[in-house]
Write a structure and sequence with these properties.
Largest sheet: 5 strands, antiparallel
Distance between the termini: 41 Å
Strand content: over 45%
Radius of gyration: 16 Å
Order of helices and strands: EEEEEEEEEEEEEEEE
Structural class: mainly beta
Helix content: under 10%
Number of strands: 16
Number of helices: 0
């Protein structure tokens, strides 16, 4: 089952239809599991059940990229803080073999990837003051996004509304309170440093 049976939830699309995915949080001798829900009334289907990579803690948060036909599930390693594990999705089947994404530096814990632009992904979580940008193939670009004073940034979404660009995120302050923040961006590269 894992340390927590359910820890994070994401949505990925299958030909325009949402598929809900839920993972457990695990470490030590437990397996990493991901459950798939086709709708709110369906029973979960286990789509990934693999032994945890040695010494890793996975599932605090996870990320999805692409679609249910051609995508990835990505799990940041809470313990090392310098890598993630990526499981390919092909034709609605999740591979049990993972690729390792090495960050080239150590970042915060409880991190996840958020799509920043068509070709860039941002890594954000706890203790990531300058959030690194990764390419579409998850290689560190050595560029960062800077949110002054934001040490715990979660649930990031970039969106456009009435022709303007915005970033919405949840800022957690010392684990005791949180605030929804919405920033208007002058351009897609507004936060890059």
């Amino acid at each position: 089952v894992g340390y927590f049976k359910t820890s994070d939830v994401k949505v990925i699309y299958d030909n325009g239809n949402p598929v809900v995915l839920v993972c457990n949080m695990n470490h030590g001798g437990t397996n990493l599991k991901v459950y798939k829900y086709n709708n709110t009334a369906s029973n979960p289907e286990v789509i990934l059940d693999v032994p945890n990579p040695s010494g890793a803690r996975l599932g605090d948060k996870f990320s999805v990229a692409g679609t249910w036909q051609s995508g990835k599930l990505i799990f940041h390693d809470y313990n090392t803080k310098n890598k993630a594990y990526s499981f390919a999705i092909n034709g609605g089947v999740v591979s049990t073999v993972y690729d390792t994404i090495n960050y080239g530096a150590s970042y915060g814990n409880i991190c996840a990837f958020y799509q920043y632009s068509a070709s860039e992904w941002m890594l954000s979580g706890v203790s990531t003051y300058k959030m690194p940008l990764f390419s579409a193939t998850f290689v560190n670009t050595n560029s960062t996004l800077d949110l002054p004073g934001a040490s715990a940034v979660h649930g990031v979404r970039f969106f456009r509304l009435y022709g303007k660009s915005y970033m919405a995120y949840l800022h957690v302050d010392s684990g005791t309170s949180s605030k929804l923040k919405i920033l208007e961006l002058a351009s897609e590269s507004d936060l890059k440093t």
